Amino acid sequence: MFAVLKREFRSYFQNVIGWLFVAALMALFGLYFYVYNLRQGYPYLYYTLSAITIIFMIAVPILTMRSFAEDRKNKTDQLMLTAPVPVAKVVLGKYLAMLAVFTVDIAVFCVTPLILRAFGTIPMGESYIAILAFWLYGAASIAVGMFISALTESQVIAAVLTFVVLFISYMMQSLTGLISSDGNWLTKILNCLDLYAPFEKFQGGCLDITAILYYVTVIVLFNFFTVQAIQKRRWSISKKTFSLSVFSSSFIVVVFALAVVANLAVDALPTRITSVDCSYSKLYSITKDTKKTMKKLKSDVTIYVLAAEKSKDAQIDSMLERYKDLSGHIRVKYVNPKSKPYFYKDYTDNAPTSNSLIVVSDKRSKVIDYYDIYDYQSNMDYSTYSYNNELKGFDAEGQITSAIAYVTSENLPVMYTLEGHGEQEIDSTIKEDIEKANMEIKSLNLLTEGSVPEDAGCLLIDSPTTDISEDEKTALIDYLENGGKAMIFSDYTGEKMENFDAVLENYGVSRVDGLVFEGDAQHYAAQMPYYLVPTVNSTDITSDVSSSGYYILMPYAQVIQKSDDVRDTVNIESLLTTSDSAYSKTDLNSGSLEKEDGDVEGPFDLGVSITETVDDDKETRIIYYSTSNLLQSQINQMVSGGNEKLVMTSLSSLVDTEDSTTVSIPSKSLEVSYLTLTAYDASFWKICTIGLIPGVFLLIGFMIWLKRRKA
Predict the structure, then answer these.
(1) What is the separation of C-alpha 361 from the centre of its chain, rounded to a whole number of angstroms?
(2) DSSP 3-state of 322
(3) Among 366, 361, 452, which residue's Cα sits nearest to residue 410?
(4) Residue 479 in contact with residue 456, Cβ under 8 Å?
(5) pLDDT in tens, 308-344
(6) Model confidence, pTM
(7) Nearest to residue 468, comparing CAs of 498, 434, 440?
């Protein structure tokens, strides 16, 4: 086999075909590499490789057409047919030689992510997964082309038939769509012949074992078919009989059946086993919050996908498969809007977009629109004075988990927000997270209501700028002392707020006038010592934040001082603390950021959790942070969502329910960190990838051809 491999590989580079194949494929790759990656600064290789797959169908026939057809035409195959050498070794040697020629291009492709890395952040895992997928697709296509070459003695016919077969395979989804939009047994069989569909499974950095097995199966089968095609001719020449051909046909059926069974068996395995998430943003990974919710799931839930199964969204479908693996109570059904255009009317009045989801249980239902799964942000393009929608995130897990919790929960919590004292408006990002956690947000004016409503799952007091009244103070204390739950934020205002402070002091904490500054550069950000990066203590509330390595950013925070003069039943736990080098400036008009005489020395508490058991079955819970800037989107973005994570875990701990109704999972970022290339850099690598490297291959090939011709 190795002798055949060596001879065939050398033969490809002793004439123009090998050099032409390598150069042509490299030039085509270089063209799209320039357009997508160099010119547009796009860091992903998948779309570059996907763009050349259809052109690759022309290159494969050129490489494979002579593998057996030339030998058959020149009658040199008689030596192979009569020699005492296993045909399988000859076929495998020829196949590996062609694969080695193709791998020369792949080796060059593998260098391109390293080139791009010099100009920005590159998702290396996704890049090399895409290259692996393209190599497998090419390897399978070469196996098909070699088999067709073994059936004819004409290289032209072999090339044309190979192109036709590969093109039909590439267009298989469209062709089966013409047969049936909903799919049937015939379309399922035909889709097994689609070589391109498994390639798409690798999109986004998902290492799909089922797709790998499919390509390996195609490679093995078509190598086996080639062996059988030659073996039949070999036996016919030596024995003039058809007996082994019958045996070979039976053997083909057995091998084909084993391949089908193997693929079906692997396809039946849970997605968590057959799919490895190598994506930069971990798009396909399920968080432990979802796993916890699915573990507690007791009711049956059906998720209807408003799309024909042929036109389904691959990323959403992959995520739904993971939910099915997590719980036997989850069922997924595809509903074709064309055949059932009014299916949605049983659940909503407004028609959802294609690929939207409807989550249904025996209690209630919830519609998840497709455009809520993908987060888009409208940006003004000042060159055209029009808005462009830019993809920002993939929120499938957050939306689906929230919907499952919503449709299966017995009681949905209500969060009241205190108003009437200049409180901050809830940031839109946090508000979306709260709503996604299935909490209803209602406003509360204690002056008109007189007391906190009985259905309050939690009370939010978001940094009042003026003091509450005496009656409001009494109402708040009554609510809390009866087992109430509250999340409180405060800001430095310079105003006296005796009644607000009295509510805090009733639970052993108080605000200290002034703002906290950090003396340790490891604990502040943006060269501003009042942009505090506190230590996140390991507690039940903050364990997820601390273990995940999130940072918290707290600009303009005050000191939270614990009181020794408080009831023994009150327990105060520190959540966020400064370093020992922190200090609180009492004179903010001094104009100096440095520590001065009269400033209070740290360390300080910036966030605390307060609990008190008031009855056998009731517990007061308060979480207090000394700045409302924790809730601001621009601050949250500076720590990659750390503040958002802290606020939502804190809120969930206050309104925690047995059925995990309040679970809220943030969207996974799809923001592209575009590469920064100068015009010189882009031009240099364009010349190298489109002209120089392919030109070198062509020049060497031409010189070898010319030398052999003169000889």
Answers:
(1) 27
(2) helix
(3) 361
(4) yes
(5) 887 888 889 889 999 999 999 999 999 999 889 999 9
(6) 0.73
(7) 498
